[in-house]
Amino acid sequence: MSTASIIEMGNQNSSALETLGRFKQLFNNLFAGNMAELSSVYSENVTFTDPFTSVHGIDELTEYFSSAYANVISCGFDFGEPVVNGEDVCIPWVMQLRHKRIRKGNPVAVEGISQLVIREGRVLSHRDYFDIGQLLYENLPLMGRVIRWIRKQAG
Question: Of 40, 84, 91, 117, whose Cβ has the fewest other Cβ atoms within 10 Å?
Fold first, then answer.
C-alpha cells in the first residue's frame, strides 16, 4: 500500500500549478515600482484578505500593495510545499522583510500561509493568514519592549 504525498491530495490541475509558479515568482520579485505585474497573476475580480484589510478587484489590490510596499527595503518568501486540490491551493511561507519603519530596516521573519482559489489560470481569491504581532508589535520599539516585559513577567 502506498500513500500519496500531501501535494497530491485530490485532483491536481496543471493550470493551478502553473499559476502557483507565477504567484511564487511574483512575490519574490515584487517591489513598489512593479505593481503592474499583479495583473499577470490575479483575476480582475480578485478578492484579497489579510489581517490588515480586505479588498476586491485588481485596482484595489494594486493600490493596497502599492501602499504596503512604499517603505519596503526588500521582501522575499521561502515557500513550503503546497497542498493542491484541483484549483484550491494552500501554501505555507516565511516572509523575510526589511522595512524602513520596522526594526530600523533590520530583517524580520514572519511565518504564514496563503489560501488561493485559482480559476482560468488566475488567482480569484487570496487570503493570507499570519500573526500580526510577529510582524509588527514584536518589532516596533515601544511595543517590542512591552511584549518582552510581559513575556518575562509571565515566564
Answer: 40
| Dist. CA 142–CA 80, nearest whole Å | 33
User: Alpha helices, DSSP H only, in 58-102?
Assistant: 58-68
pLDDT at 85: 94
pLDDT of 100 > 70? The answer is: yes
Q: Against a cut of 0.85, is the pTM above it?
A: no
Instruction: Quick: pLDDT tens for 61-74.
Output: 999 999 999 989 99
The three cell numbers locating residue 46: 480578485
Residue carrying the nine cell digits 518589532: 139
Q: In this structure, which long-range contacts are made by residues 133-142, counting pairs with CB atoms below 8 Å and at least 24 apart in sequence?
A: 134/110, 135/97, 135/102, 135/108, 135/110, 136/102, 139/102, 139/103, 139/108, 140/102
